[in-house]
Amino acid sequence: MHEKKQDVATAALITGASAGIGATFARAYADRGKTLVLTARRGDRLRELAASLAPVRCEVIEADLADRDAPQQLAREIERRGLVIDTLVNNAGYGVTGSFLSRDWQTHADFLQVMVTSVCELTHRLVPGMRARKHGRVINVASIAGLVPSSAGHTLYGASKNFVIRFSESLALELAGTGVNVCALCPGFTWTEFHDANGMRPRMGRMPNWLWQSAEAVVEEGIEAVEGGRSRHVTGAVNRALTTVFKHLPQPLADAVIRRQSRNYRDVQ
User: Fold this and answer.
1) What is the enclosing helix (H) or strand (E) of 31?
2) Residue 2 lies in a domain
3) pLDDT, tens only, 126-139
4) Catalytic (active site) residue 94
5) Cα separations (Å) of 68 from 2, 22, 47, 109, 127?
6) Structural contact between residues 23 and 32, judged by C-beta atoms closer than 8 angstroms
7) Are 146 and 162 in contact (CB under 8 A)?
8) Is the pTM of this model over 0.85?
9) How many helices (H) and strands (E) does the chain have?
10) How many domains does one find in the chain?
């Protein structure tokens, strides 16, 4: 006799799910009836979020992606729990204020581990299964900071987001026709706790309201974009206009504009 094959639960893994865009992705996929795997450093916040999403199944796995072993351990724990990831949202992220040389190297190394290495490793570990099953979705949360000229301060932030964008675009081309869609989601200023975490809320408060989007709007655009097979999506009409303008400005003029405006929201001490 053949044993009956057990159904395997497919789920969405969302990193940095304890707040902001990550938590909003969790709510959006919960509304769609999706089983969730939520990960972040703050387990209490994750458990609170998971409880609020009942009766949707939510698995909580505490992990600090600054730990180089975290992606492998996360993938193993997901497998141990009998889950299969068919949607990956690489959302975990933060900003390091100040100039490049004002911070020690370990601070930058941890940042790159979270913002670049863990994104690539989790994708590398989870996409082969998606490809084998001929269905998968990967949303890498980037930023328009990766598409406009760089500014002084937060030195690695725009660089890391540009990497994520290019990585996503290349991977999307490699996976074309496999049933796996990859999208770099590029929001601009978004109403979340992001700027509270790095102490920049007072400066960011100087920015006009029309520059900002809600996390809900960003997430809905992101899900629509990845389902539509777009490899890159800039959220909001204002952000799309800004990135288009900067793309066509002469480099010296674009640099001058960024240099002047970034004084309002960049700490370069």
Assistant:
1) helix 20-31
2) no
3) 999 999 999 999 99
4) no
5) 42, 21, 24, 10, 19
6) no
7) yes
8) yes
9) 11, 9
10) 1
